[in-house]
């Protein structure tokens, strides 16, 4: 689903992380849309312009431990 965005991060990890280590980057269509201090902030701000599930939020850290994928489907779970 967001394999293209994740591959962009892996391929360009050094450049994407440089100067932004520890932040959260939003990637869509092989472009960096922005950097945010928290994952929630990245999600909230980006979902104002793009539908959840159409962008990748990735933690800006170097190395394979950064290779986690976060997908947002727009589903909401609740309880009674």
Biggest β-sheet: strands ordered side by side in the sheet: 2-1-3
Mean pLDDT level = 86
Low-confidence stretches: none
Total beta-strand segments: 3
Question: H/E element string?
Answer: HHEEHE
Question: Largest beta sheet, briefly?
Answer: 3 strands, antiparallel
Give the DSSP E fraction (strand runs of 2 or more residues): 15-25%
Shape: globular
Quaternary organisation of the protein chains:
single chain
Helix content: 25-40%
Number of helices: 3
Span between N and C termini? Answer: 31 Å
Structure description:
This protein is an alpha+beta fold and 80 residues long. Strand 1 and strand 2 form a beta hairpin. The chain is globular, with a radius of gyration of 13 Å. It has a 3-stranded antiparallel sheet with strand order 2-1-3, sandwiched between helices.
Salient structural properties:
80 residues, alpha+beta, 3-stranded antiparallel β-sheet
């Amino acid at each position: 689903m967001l394999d293209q965005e994740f591959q962009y991060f892996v391929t360009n990890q050094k450049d994407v992380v440089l100067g932004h280590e520890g932040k959260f980057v939003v990637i869509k269509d092989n472009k960096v849309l922005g950097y945010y201090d928290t994952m929630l902030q990245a999600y909230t701000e980006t979902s104002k312009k793009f539908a959840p599930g159409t962008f990748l939020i990735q933690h800006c850290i170097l190395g394979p431990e950064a290779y986690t994928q976060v997908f947002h489907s727009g589903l909401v779970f609740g309880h009674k």
